[in-house]
Amino acid sequence: EPLAGLLGGETAAAMPGADEAAAVWLLLEYLDDPRFDRVVVDTAPTGHTLRLLKLPEMLDSLTDQLSGLGEQLGEAGPFGDMGAGAGVGGGATVGGTVADSPGGIEGLEQFGTQIQRLRTRLQDPTRTDFRIVLVPEELSVAESERLRDRLNSFGIPVQTVVVNRVLQDPAAVADVDPDWFVAPDHTDCAFCARRWEVQQRALKRAQELFRDHAVRRVPLFAEEVHGERLLRVVAACLADR
């Protein structure tokens, strides 16, 4: 909203980081909503998530640049001589400076303050647990290590790592009713056996890299996870033990 007020809807939407800014705005609304005791966010892939966390720096830079632009344009006089629609955001600033636009620099600065508040909350281990989710493949493990290191640099706590789609009997990782799911057959299924060997190497690497974290395994199910039974199985796999 601050970007849209300052630059116009289409211009703001096309800016790098616009999607991440919109996501932050929505997340802040949920965090401030008294109806919720806990907010669970399914984040985007690694690159998008890291850009989201870089928003405070991006907004600081953008605010400085726009403030300087506003001062220069203010000294040069109004935009009126440039013609209708020539202002930033399709005419949002015609007849005035950038700082006069709806929301303006002040709105952007307020949004930056809100993002800093969000980051402070994310950095609090008593209120946040950033759970890295990966699959048991070497590339995914390496990418997750990079994400963990970057999160550490942002001061965001990672307490739990979840390895998803593991070709393993759910009963081996959680106390669940075996009648609720179909377990993989490593004896008669050559594909299952071979794939399990490959996964075990990645699992071993993940256990080494994330030995200071709680590592949870969620099996690969034969069907989509929906309904109470399979959700209970997943919950049991993720539960503290």
* Backbone structural class: mainly alpha
How many structural domains does the protein architecture include?
2
Count of helix runs: 10
Backbone CA Rg: 24 Å
- The main sheet orders its strands as 1-2-3
Beta-strand level of the residues, as a percent range?
5-15%
Task: Write structural notes for this entry.
- With 241 residues, this protein is mainly α.
- The protein folds into 2 domains: 2-122; 131-238, Rossmann fold.
- Helices cover 52% and strands 7% of the residues.
- The chain contains 10 helices and 3 strands.
- A 3-stranded parallel beta sheet has the order 1-2-3.
Helices and strands in order, then pairings?
Elements: H1 2-7, H2 9-14, H3 18-31, H4 46-53, H5 55-76, H6 88-91, H7 104-122, E1 131-134, H8 138-153, E2 160-166, H9 190-209, E3 214-219, H10 228-238
Parallel strand pairs: 1-2, 2-3
Helix pairs in contact: 3-4, 5-7
Features of the shown structure:
single chain, mainly alpha, Rossmann fold, 2 domains, 3-stranded parallel sheet, elongated
Question: How do you describe this structure in short?
Answer:
This protein is mainly α and 241 residues long. The protein has helices at residues 2-7, 9-14, 18-31, 46-53, 55-76, 88-91, 104-122, 138-153, 190-209, 228-238; strands spanning 131-134, 160-166, 214-219. The chain has a three-stranded parallel beta sheet with strand order 1-2-3.
